[in-house]
Amino acid sequence: MATTSPTSLPPFDSVEVVDLDGDITTTAARMFGQTPAKRVRATGAQAQRLGDLFRALPPGEQARCHIPPFGLLFRLGETVVAAVSICWQCNNVHGHGGQVSLYFQFDASAKVSRELLAACKKAIAAG
To answer: How many CB atoms are closer than 10 A to CB 36?
Structure first.
């Protein structure tokens, strides 16, 4: 899978934050609704804030695990234009944006990374 950048995220108008609950065996099923998972759709300024924080993730080194606590489904209308799982423990992102694979490492300790995690937690807690 080619390494890409968070800046390659396509245009979107909403973001669905999915609580993946740390179970790597059900990540895809939870992301796309085949297995129950808490999810909240953010629109407007909240969606744009999640996208801005995602695009600003700084490069970093990954660990050797992937236990993603959250997934993000970026939507344009009802169409998913990008779907990613993010692991702040492993410092990596896996997914796709349209026809482009999204896979990159980021610095999970950076301020913007912590802000994105906080925004995901806040969205799930409010939902």
So the answer is: 10
pLDDT in tens, 49-75: 999 999 998 887 765 565 557 899 999
Structure tokens at 9: 């995220």
Structurally, how many domains does the chain consist of? 1
Q: Is 71 inside any structural domain?
A: yes
Q: Is the pTM of this model over 0.70?
A: no
1: in domain: no
Residue 57 belongs to a domain = yes
In a domain, 122, yes or no: yes
Residues in the chain, total: 127
8 A C-beta contact, residue 8 and residue 100: yes
- CB-based contact 84:6 (threshold 8 Å): no
Q: Residue 41: which domain range?
A: 6-126
